[in-house]
Amino acid sequence: MPELPEAEVAVRQIRARLAGGRIATIAVGRMDIIREGADSLEWYSGSVVSGVVRYGKSVVLECRKPGGSRYLVAELGMTGLLVFPSVQIRFPQHVHVTLECEGATAASLRYWNPRRFGRLSLLDREGLDRYRARRFGCDPLQVKCEDFCELLRSKRRRLKALLMHQQTIAGIGNIYANEILFRAKLHPNAMASRLTDAAATRLHQVMQSVLEHAIECGGSSVKDFFAPDGTHGQYKQHHLVYRKEGLSCPNHCGSMIRRVQSERSSFYCGKCQTNKR
DNA sequence: AGCTCTTCCTGAAAGC
DNA sequence: TGCTTTCAGGAAGAGC
Question: What's the pTM value of the predicted model, to 2 decimals?
Answer without folding.
Answer: 0.94
